[in-house]
Amino acid sequence: MSEQQRPEARPLPGVQHVIPVASGKGGVGKSTVSANLAVALAAAGKRVGLLDADIYGPSIPTIMGVQAPPRVENERVVPAEQHGVKVISMGFFIREEQAVVWRGPMLSKMLDEFLQNVDWGELDVLIVDLPPGTGDIQLSLCQKIKLAGAVVVSTPQDVALKVAQKAISLFGLLETPVLGLIENMSYFICPGCGRREEIFGTGGTRRAAEALGLPFLGALPLVTALRAESDAGRPPAALDPEGEMGRTFRLIADRLLAEAEARAASPAEPRGAGGGA
Ligand code: ADP
Fold first, then answer.
1. What is the rounded distance in angstroms from the CA atom of residue 228 to the CA atom of residue 230?
2. Among 81, 57, 77, 78, which Cα is nearest to 67's?
3. Which ligand 1 atom lies nearest to the CA of residue 185?
C-alpha cells in the first residue's frame, strides 16, 4: 500500500506481507491458487499463514487436507497447521451444510476476529483467500489492514476478465496496489494424447494485465487430476513440487513475493483501477 493510503489501515503485528487473493467471480480457482501459493512459499522456507475469508464457501480446510482443527490457548485461537502453513477458516467453525447468511457488520467483525484473535505468530506472508466479487470483506480488509497488495485470479474468457477488472477497480478505489494477475485454467493438456487444447482461449489475462499496466504472474493449466487432488486435500505444490503444477506454483509464488518485496521497499502509487505504473 502507498504512503498516502487510508490512515486507519494498520500493519498486522508480526506479519510482514498480507496478500489477499481475489477474483471477479466464483469457480475460477481462487482458493486452489491461494492454497498452493501458500504451500509453495512455505516449501521455499517462508513462514506462511493462510486465512480463508471466503466465508460463503470455505474450501481451504478441504484443499489443504487439514487433519487437526485449530485450538484455543490462553483465549487465543492457535491455527491449524498443514503442509507447513498455518490455516484458519470459517469452515472450522460452521457445519458443512450450514449456510452463512450474514450482513456487512457481522462479516467485518468475523474478519477482525480472524486477524486479531488468532495467534499467527511471526509470519513472512499471510495469504487471504477472499470471497469472489467486491463485497464487505474486501472493503473491510483494505480499510483496516495494511496490505502488501492483492493478487487477482481469472480464467482467460472475456466474461471472467471483465468481472476481474471490476475487482481491480475496487482495489484502485481502496488505494490497494495489485501485485499481479494469474491466469488459471489457461489451457488443457489431454492426459491421453498430450495435445494442448485452449478451451477458453488463452492469454486473455496476460493481455488484460498489459493493458492495465499490472504484472502478469503466470498461467496455470487445467489439469484433471488437480480437481481430484484438491478434493482429497493434496495440493500439488506439496504433493509433487517437481511436477509441472508444483513448479508453476513455485515460479508464481517467487514472482509474487518479489513484487511484494519491491512494493515494500519503495511504496509507490497504487496500481489498478485501470491505471498503470
Ligand atoms: P474459487 O475459489 O474461485 O471458487 P476453487 O479453487 O474452489 O475456485 O476451484 C473451483 C473448482 O475448480 C474446484 O473443484 C477445483 O478443484 C477446480 N480447479 C481449480 N483450478 C483448476 C485447474 N487448474 N485444473 C483443474 N481443476 C481446477
1. 5
2. 81
3. 23
Give the whole-angstrom CA distance, residue 245 versus residue 237.
Answer: 7
pLDDT digits (tens, 9 = 90+) for 146-180: 999 999 999 988 766 887 788 888 899 888 999 99
- Domain architecture of the chain: domains with CATH: 15-264 (3.40.50.300)
Contact 53, 129 (CB under 8 A): yes
Distance 227 CA to ligand 1 centre (A): 6
Pairing state of beta strands 48-52 and 123-129? parallel
Reported residue count of the chain is 277
Ligand 1 pocket test: pick from 227, 240, 244, 248 the residue with the most ligand atoms within 8 Å of its Cβ. Answer: 227
pTM for the model: 0.91
